[in-house]
Amino acid sequence: MSTTTLLVRQDQLATTRLHTANDDAPLADGQVRVRVDQFALTANNITYAAMGEMLQYWQFYPSGEAGWGIVPVWGFGTVVQSQCADVAVGERLYGYWPMADQAVLSPHRITPAGFADGAPHRASLHAVYNQYLRAAADPFYRTDNEDVQALLRPLFVTSWLIDDFLDDQQFFGARRMLLSSASSKTAYGTAFQLAQRDGIEVIGLTSPGNVAFCESLGCYDRVVTYEALEAEIDGATPSVYIDFAGSVGLRQRIHAHFSGLAYSCAVGASHVQDLGGAGQLPGPRPVMFFAPAQVKKRNADWGAQGLGQRLVGAWNHFSTTVQAPPAPWLTVQHHAGPEATRALFTRMLAGSGDARAGHIATLQAA
Known about the structure:
The chain is of the alpha/beta class. It is about 30% helix and about 25% strand. The chain is built from eight helices and 18 strands.
């Protein structure tokens, strides 16, 4: 038996290679082998790679090769071998996988809903990323929209948590929200939630080519191009900047123009070199949003069941909207095989592609 994995150079993300290793060792007692059937590849995964060292994303699936990493992805897998009495062959799982065609997990804390991976190297990593959910017991799961779940579920959860965090902080006294990279899926999800709140103005910032698309989403009060933001938006009004782009230059312009900036929230991080020097910017220091921290807070506030109920309700509303006829917002594209997945990662890193497209990949042979 062999495993094929896409490896990424940690200090030069555009450098990738496919690695196939023979693995004839039997599973240890308590382990399961999962075929990684399909996963989403989005700008979110590029952020995982860009922030891999800072936020420990490289540590979930160590490559074993110095300087090379495995980018984690969200999607679905099927148990194909099991030495764990409580996890059956054939079970469908949703979770956080390596960009590979299979993965070996060590289930512990097993419940009817799922389990955590008990591999020793993951013990200190955040629990949100260590959970594997049984599709048969997952309230989010529907057999007819696995693609949408893989693509949007983790992004929407982040979006929902951003909106919830801002509401919990009373929007830092501001009523205007500025969202960069407004055409991105996580920005859209955030705008979708913010638009449901009374008295909040949601402004999308984007490139000229994406203005019409962003306006068609129906959740931005205004859409403004990056080039025109100083001319079209009053800088004195108290505002919150939610940065999905990670652009150094844009962040500098936002902080310079918006004298009323109440909070600066960094979500995307395609350009991470500026974060360390953020103290040199006018106004509030940019703060990286870490979704698991808000999950931990809300678990304490509401309990896991209370948080889950809120998320499922919001997800059902959102996922129905993005697929609504006659013009669904999302168009799913499939990419099968190692080379196709590698080429897709390269394109995603370059930031090219249709804003309406959602990419589902698998390293399983076409």
